[in-house]
Amino acid sequence: MPGIIVVGTQWGDEGKGKAVDALGERVDYVVRFSGGNNAGHTVVVGGERFVMHLLPAGILNPNATTVIGNGVVLDLEVLYRELDGLATRGLSVAHPLISANAHLITPYHRTLDKVTERFAGKKRIGTTGRGIGPAYSDKINRIGLRVADLFNPDQLHDKVVASLEQKNQILVKIFNRREIAAHLITGQLLGYADRIRPHVVDASRLLNTALDDGKVVLFELFRSAQAHHLDVDHGTYPYVTSSNPTAGGACTGTGVGPTRIDRVIGIAKAYTTRVGEGPFPTELLDADGERLRVAGGEYGATTGRPRRCGWFDAPVVEVAARANGTTDIFLTKLDILSGRAEIPVCVAYEIAGRRTGHYPMTQAEFQLARPVYELLPGWQEDISGVRSFTGLPANCQAYVRRLEELIGTRISGIGVGPGREEVILINELA
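Given the sequence above, the corresponding structure tokens read:
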């Protein structure tokens, strides 16, 4: 049975939560492999809207076991706030299994994230201030804290002291902030140890054994603001996240090898959005952009920030599909485009007087890119009630097929509304 990876092909907010939730009924394990709680995802079940920032989308599926892999940076305060919040709404969910090697976000990570972004001024990159970048920095610098450290209090305290030696100097002498007491951090973290202990596992062995046993394992990129173009290596650097939210990151973030992956599903919105700073060739700073924002509810699930909106950018999705080896594309929010006579689609760029049909090699070139549009006929019909591809208006079908041609990957699923049931499946995804 397959290992399936779900990745975003734009700048996040593509609707991965909806796709994962739909797939979750067909899988045995749903696994997070990257990022933290710096953005959220929204799932609509029975007309009720659930916004989660750390818990995997599959947490609401009683038939799937959820796992937080080693590639995730974990804010324990947020984790238990979300679990307790679901419980107060009458949803008693199983605690997700958590890799012992996942790194922890601490209060000093959040503090550093906020003060450094504020002092960056015009050079800010649009961080959410949730401590994600500083936590990953500590991980790479080999001074991070892991979940397993919670079960060795003396070792945990020593690691906190060592981590704060330089950080306190920076906070006090550069940012004019108060010194952070190591014992307070240690005490706060240890307060979660007994609660989390039963759920800590060797995630790599667990998942590989599950695949050996014929289980279906879904590796979800999760979170709205994670996608190929926010990858620290392949994204619009430096306006990126601090991890690898790509198909390759699913392997390093879980301990499951690439030969065990059978399918990679790329999620693409029928138009394009972005949160935060960075280049965005098709961005609309006019009434069309506002219409997309309002109709699509384009506001950050975590920050509430209005998302930047623009037309579909085919070179952006094509390069993501290529780099991630996507086998299928799930197209979301197609219903938002209803009611237009024509719909522009970016098919190429003009860069310094030259036209190119491909995503450019360097970010300096991408900064200069101007979209070249192809106008496709629109449709007026409400498509939210359609459940088959042939039931869509002819122009709507043509729009989907043209996107398919441009990105070079088959479109196997389409979202036509926010609800779990508002989906068209063209090809089976699991």
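The radius of gyration is 22 Å. Try to locate this feature in the token string yourself.
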